Amino acid sequence: MIKLCTYVANSRINCKAVYNSQENEVDTIPKLNSDITLLIAYINIGFDSDTMVANQIWGFSPKDSWIEQKLSLPQISNNSDLKLVGDFEPGAWRLDRSSTWKTFFDSETGWLCIGNPNAEAQDNSVKFMENAVAVLTAEAELKGLWIQLSTD
Q1: What is the average pLDDT value for the chain, to the nearest integer?
Q2: pLDDT > 90: percent of the chain
Q3: What 3 state SS string does the chain have?
Q4: How far apart are CA 59 and CA 135, in angstroms?
Q5: How many of the other CB atoms lie within 10 Å of CB of 110?
Q6: Quick one: which of 29, 45, 54, 77 could link to 82 by a disulfide (CB 3.0–4.6 Å)?
Q7: Phi-psi region of 24 (alpha: psi -120 to 50; beta: other; left: phi over 0)
Q8: What pLDDT, on a 0 to 100 scale, did the predictor assign at position 48?
Q9: Cis (ω within 30 of 0) for the bond into 74?
Q10: Which residues have CB under 8 Å from 104's CB, separation 6+?
Q11: In the prediction, which pLDDT does 150 show?
Q12: Can you name the residues that pair with 25 across neighbouring β-strands?
């Protein structure tokens, strides 16, 4: 089980996820080093192994695979870094092993949610990039990745 936590640091990473509709892909500006990757469907969340902090989102996500529905962004608990808990060597780990997580999109708000879009009172929602929110369960597992899309 891969656990995550929030971490308030003095040097917060200021990155932004963008969507390239011609390539059907999400990417992050600016690009930073990330050598640990958590995989959800075809989306990657990159972490720097020195700090264990998330600093990239990238991957393939064609619009025709998105489920259009009205989404309500969970209330953001805090703005902080998203940090891996435990010892991880550089490499990749898949979070959605039992079944591929679905991707939901609200065209009115521009929010994309990969995973479970339903918030519960015990969830912890952390804004860890300019336009990205991670929703963690009470057990510190990733429940959903929210990205407010902007195109490049």
Answers
A1: 90
A2: 72
A3: CCEEEEECCCCCCCCEEEEECCCCEEEEECCCCCCEEEEECCEEEEEECCCCEEEEEEEECCHHHCEECCCCCCCCCEECEEEEECCCCCEEEECCCCCCCCEEEECCCCEEEEECCCCCCCCEEEEEECCEEEEECCCCCEEEEEEECCEC
A4: 19
A5: 15
A6: 54
A7: left
A8: 93
A9: no
A10: 66, 67, 68, 69, 71, 112, 113, 114, 117
A11: 67
A12: 20, 60
pLDDT in tens, 27-83: 999 988 899 999 998 999 999 999 999 999 999 999 999 999 999 999 988 888 999
Decide if pLDDT at 100 tops 90: no
Look-up: residue for tokens 């892909």?
A: 25
| C-alpha distances in Å from residue 100, one per residue of 4, 94, 115, 122, 140 | 20, 10, 9, 24, 20
Task: Report residue 134 as tokens.
Answer: 């991670």
| 118 confidence band (pLDDT: 50, 70, 90) | very high
| Pairing of the two strands 53-60 and 111-115 | unpaired
Sheet holding 78-79, edge to edge: 67-68, 103-106, 111-115, 142-148, 132-136, 124-129, 78-79
* Unique residue bearing structure tokens 């995973």: 115
